[in-house]
Design brief:
single chain; 290 residues; mainly alpha; two-stranded antiparallel ribbon; 11 helices
Length: 290
């Protein structure tokens, strides 16, 4: 493999770290709370703008990123309180339409506050290292490390802990879970908070690479939705892996042809998947979907 191919592979993995974190939070809310959070991408973008504002106030990259994660957590809780909790007993379409409405509010609030010009938060770390002919920025390496830690931590909690087992039980059948003393509401709110934190981290990492615009959340959530569908609705780590594959396809396709062609091929492939295998490559992990 030549140097250019290796550089593209590394760049794609760095982008995939951000996409993977975003998709991980989307799948976590789905798997743990049974919620389809279409405001998730806009939460990531709003958190990135919080990091931009923090930098304008003199905060360094790490502190601004921490502020973005905190903002993502608060916004995740807000989405839960406004779009999920009051509508959880209504048809599932009501919750994700409410989430879309919250996303639109966030988009317009960001446009009014920051304008429409692309902006980027401060880098968490500048510089990098050359491995042969491949340049690996510290920012990209931090993104990969953060994604790896998040993936392992979420998998460990859901698969190995009592809290994770209760989360899965609460999402599968809330009424029976509540009858067995499982705090369904509290666990769902926890899932939204963690998903928001992951969105905040993803937003600041993605914005540092490709800038943030108020409308970028729509593209982010579409990538997360595609990843969730490809992996199998409700599967946590396969969804994150699918998001990384999407980023690799996007990066390599853009280099070989163009970004527009790569995007078109990606969504054409997604439509073909829906036609021939709507349950996704990994099969369904839960019964509800939209």
């Amino acid at each position: 493999m030549d140097a250019l191919s290796l550089q593209l592979l590394f760049n794609g993995l760095a982008l995939g770290a951000g996409y993977g974190l975003l998709a991980l939070g989307f799948a976590l809310a789905l798997r743990s709370a049974g919620a389809i959070n279409f405001a998730h991408g806009d939460v990531a973008v709003a958190a990135a703008y919080v990091a931009v504002a923090g930098g304008a106030l003199g905060l360094g990259g790490p502190a601004a990123a921490g502020l973005a994660i905190a903002a993502g957590t608060v916004l995740g809780l807000s989405v839960a309180g406004l779009s999920w909790a009051p509508l959880r007993n209504r048809p599932i379409e009501a919750t994700f339409i409410a989430a879309i409405a919250i996303g639109i509010v966030l988009q317009n609030a960001l446009t009014a506050s920051f304008g429409g010009a692309p902006q980027a938060p401060a880098q968490i770390a500048s510089g990098g290292v050359h491995i042969g002919a491949v340049f690996m920025s510290w920012q990209a390496l931090i993104s990969l490390a953060a994604a790896a830690v998040a993936f392992i931590a979420v998998w460990a909690v859901l698969a190995k802990s009592q809290t994770g087992r209760r989360m899965r039980a609460a999402a599968e059948d809330p009424e029976i879970a509540a009858a067995h003393g499982i705090p369904v509401m509290r666990l769902a709110i926890l899932a939204f908070a963690v998903a928001g934190a992951l969105a905040g981290l993803a937003g600041v990492l993605l914005a540092a690479q490709h800038y943030a615009t108020p409308g970028a959340g729509a593209d982010y959530i579409l990538k997360a939705y595609v990843a969730a569908t490809v992996a199998g609705w409700g599967r946590i780590l396969p969804t994150a892996a699918a998001a990384i594959a999407i980023a690799l396809f996007e990066t390599i396709g853009a280099a070989l042809v163009s970004h527009a062609v790569a995007e078109a091929l990606l969504y054409a492939g997604f439509v073909a998947l829906l036609a021939f295998r709507p349950q996704g490559l990994g099969g369904e992990a839960k019964g509800k979907r939209a």
